[in-house]
Write a structure and sequence with these properties.
By secondary structure, the chain is mostly beta strands. The protein has no helices and 20 strands.
């Protein structure tokens, strides 16, 4: 007597997408049948299959067997959000400011990472005039998960303000990517921020005494002059005409450490070049004196 032992035919390989928000999917398949008894498949139909390829082995009690694969593909990109602090650099005094980024990412599967993919400015790095300095973006490690860098509080004298844009890109284990950006602005005038008084007091302080270039320049009839003190100091700022005659005394007092600005109003003065001079004697004994030009143009 001949005993037939026909082969066991498994279904074709199955490919499905991961369920929304899950790192896998529940997969139902039709197991093979046999006239020689029950067929057992492992993992069974209706199981949860993780992202990737899982082999399915089916067999009967008399030794028939077959196999196929269930592949769960992950096409869901990660989510990413970015914020920067501070978001406004003022006064525009050409100093480098520390910027801190906060990046949050989530994904349906573990293993997502992020990098700083770009950090740009909408203005050239140099050549803008008004005391412009090179190296406006520093200490930014592009291509790494860098969360701290420096940006210069500077913008074009005749522009509409500067915008720095930091973009971060998240990538998951399946290679899906998503990007998000945040911005830091250097406004045209400190007075665009209604929360700031005419003379700005900052909780941060520069590492050296400085006198900034006035903005706007040329001006009519008012302009802002920025300066900064690393320690408390006695400060004098005055404006002079081309003959060296004092036009007005803007500051003559003891000033606490921080970033400051003061407004000069040229109403009633003729057009032309003027000078403003700042002298300071700091509590640590440091002395400072500097003169800059400004142009009143009606």
């Amino acid at each position: 007597m001949t005993i037939n032992n026909p082969s066991l035919d498994c279904p074709s390989d199955i490919v499905v997408n991961a369920a929304a928000g899950q790192c896998g999917a529940t997969v139902t398949y039709t197991p093979p049948t046999s006239s020689c008894g029950a067929v057992t498949c492992t993992p069974p139909s209706g199981s949860f299959f993780p992202v990737g390829t899982t082999p399915i082995a089916c067999s009967t009690q008399i030794g028939q067997s077959c196999s196929f694969n269930v592949t769960v593909a992950d096409h869901q990109p990660p989510t990413i959000s970015v914020s920067l602090s501070p978001t406004v650099l003022t006064p525009p005094n050409h100093t480098l400011r520390d910027i801190t980024a906060t990046v949050s990412i989530s994904d349906n599967c573990p293993g997502a990472t992020f990098i700083l993919s770009s950090l740009t400015s909408n203005e050239p790095d140099n050549g803008l005039g008004d005391g412009d300095l090179p190296g406006d973006i520093q200490d930014a490690a592009i291509g790494t998960p860098d969360l701290a860098f420096k940006l210069r509080a500077e913008r074009a004298g005749l522009g509409s303000g500067r915008t720095y844009t930091a973009t971060y890109t998240a990538r998951d284990a399946a290679g899906n990517t998503a990007s998000a950006s945040a911005q830091v602005t250097v406004p045209v005038s400190q007075k665009l921020d209604p929360s700031l008084p005419p003379t700005i007091t900052s909780t941060t302080r520069p590492d050296h005494i400085f006198l900034g270039q006035n903005y706007p320049n040329p001006f009519n009839p008012t302009t802002l002059i920025s300066y900064g003190l690393p320690t408390d100091a006695g400060v004098s700022i005055a404006v002079y005409d081309l003959l060296g005659r004092k036009v007005t005394q803007l500051v003559e007092e003891r000033v606490s450490a921080g970033y400051r600005n003061v407004e000069f109003d040229g109403s009633g003065l003729p057009s032309g070049w003027y000078f403003y001079r700042m002298t300071a004697v700091a509590d640590d004994g440091t002395t400072f004196s500097e003169t800059k030009k400004l142009l009143l143009l009606r």
